[in-house]
Amino acid sequence: MVIKDPAMKEKQPYKAFLERDIKTIHDxxxxxxxxxxxxxxxxxxxxxxxxxxxNWFSKAMHPYFKKLCTECIYKPQLELLDYLRANxxxxxxxxxxGIEFVRAVAEKVYGIPPEQVIGSSSxxxxxxxxxxxxxxxxxxxxxxxxxxxKVVNISLHxxxxxxxxxxxxxxxxxxxxxxxxxxxxxMAMLLHHDDAQREFAYDRDFKLSPxxxxxxxxxxxxxxxxxxxxxxxxxxxFD
Amino acid sequence: MVIKDPAMKEKQPYKAFLERDIKTIHDxxxxxxxxxxxxxxxxxxxxxxxxxxxNWFSKAMHPYFKKLCTECIYKPQLELLDYLRANxxxxxxxxxxGIEFVRAVAEKVYGIPPEQVIGSSSxxxxxxxxxxxxxxxxxxxxxxxxxxxKVVNISLHxxxxxxxxxxxxxxxxxxxxxxxxxxxxxMAMLLHHDDAQREFAYDRDFKLSPxxxxxxxxxxxxxxxxxxxxxxxxxxxFD
Lengths: 239, 239
Prior knowledge:
homodimer, three-stranded mixed sheet
């Protein structure tokens, strides 16, 4: 976008991303970052966006672990997904991240096909051009898939109340409560990132995506807290 | 609603539905009817709506065939769905009808689970009340799943371009063109209701849901027209 219009270099939040100004980016908040991401990928077709994302994932390195992002995947999470599927569960990702972004990698990395990914979405529009129909992204937020909105989107996409949920932040609390609010066997688990040695340790003070309210009410709602440090034998497959 | 507020009896479109005034109902158009339906089911939870709908379907008779609505299902459609699934296809319904309405019956009748139904939807909201989370309907349109909007919704729910599509009205033309607008083997079929003897015969002049544009461009786009009269051995299983 900056190549097309150099004046954007001086505009926020573009300037912050170009200059890797983490402080300013952080202050945008989770929703502000998602809105920027959608703006930056305006007008692309669904298939073009998928190609760009797949290419990006094929090279993107994690700055801390110095591994491909697609390798920084929790081994116990993969084992749990396999276990659920082996027992007849249909597994979904419900993410605050971009729905098409996560869809591009979910099948390869988690064995979850695109139609079983729910996430934040940009508005899109139908385009008929030169006898070809495409779906194009509009640089505007359609849904910010966080907190209450996760429940609304599960209802829209899945159409029934899930039986089991695993989350790791306050953004997941509402869907945990949704899963637990009905009769029959139901289960909600919450990952606590408390392992500074093998991963990271953070919870109530992480402003961008805190784990605060969920920790507070977990016991009262019967949400099982999983400690990365104490309960996970291995964190990553590469460990 | 009329029991709660008798004044509604005199208000349109409520009056028309209460008096079975088909002319006025017809003039509302497909979208107007959907909007009324959503208004009439405001405030219900997802599960309550499902119960009401399931009960309704257990008794609802087709006024012309004098059979349960759930029996008025095309036999060749069931055979095609079975054939596709036996060959590794994941089958979806993409309907102009209410998404939760069709979901209540799709698995039993078509073998299609709720999460593989896409349709017109009302807005919904998260509710936390007496330590119970529910999703409640708001009496407002979220998406009218017709024409271009079907393509946008397929993109949101499925996240990739389908390979095969079967439709029966102009409301399906855009998704047929979407399916056909990419490389590789792809197929679109269009049912022509031309069998006044065993079902009905209508196309260009049916105002509520015409088959006009799609008939006109079918040949040019490579859409295969299926004649109910000439191509279908049986129409209903009860024939």
